[in-house]
Amino acid sequence: MKKIFFALVAMLAMTGSASAQKYALVDMEYILKNIPAYERAGEQLNQVSRKWQAEVDALQQEAQTMYKNYQNEAVFLSDEQKSKREEAVVAKEKEASELKKKYFGPEGELFKKRESLMTPIQDEIYNAIKDIADQKGYSMVLDRASDNGIIYASPKIDISNEVLTKLGYN
Fold first, then answer.
1. What pTM does this model have?
2. pLDDT tens for each residue of 61-108
3. Which residue stretches of the chain are H helix?
4. CA–CA distance from 44 to each of 37, 54, 109, 111, 115 (Å)?
5. CB atoms closer than 10 angstroms to residue 57
């Protein structure tokens, strides 16, 4: 009997504490669109990406040209010359592939550049959200922009504008 009583008391206590929790929402897309530094960082990344892609494309084009020249001249070349030309084409293709990996790979230069430009902005936003949540007693702040299954949320609990104000943007 005591066990049942304590179990009921524990369940009531958990129910009471769960209903006392406060939640808030933010719209990260909205916040990021209203931060000029984020837009500038995105444009800077696009410029660097286009420049690096042009370098990779130039090497790939050079490899294709070398291959076409090889095909056109193959009938006039000795076996040794053919072998050297084939090796040169393969080396150029490998060079292009390695450059592409260096710039655009999972740990490549673009990833590092994105991290160095975006992380400070994201940290600043996180700290602003955390400060607001601590001040207002929110137990959880969800991002309504992410695909996390929020079907409806009252605009009254959206603190996106408060976050922008705390960051110094209107």
1. 0.70
2. 999 999 999 999 989 989 999 999 999 999 999 999 999 999 999 999
3. 2-19, 28-33, 36-73, 79-104, 109-136, 160-167
4. 10, 16, 13, 13, 13
5. 12
For residue 76, give the DSSP letter.
G
How many angstroms from the chain centroid is the CA of residue 133? 24
Q: What is the largest CA-CA distance in the chain?
A: 100
Q: Indicate the Cα dihedral angle 80, 83, 84, 88, nearest 10°.
A: 170
DSSP string, 30-57: HHHHT-HHHHHHHHHHHHHHHHHHHHHH
Q: Mind listing the pLDDT tens digit for each residue in 129-169? A: 999 999 999 888 988 887 666 656 777 888 999 999 999 98
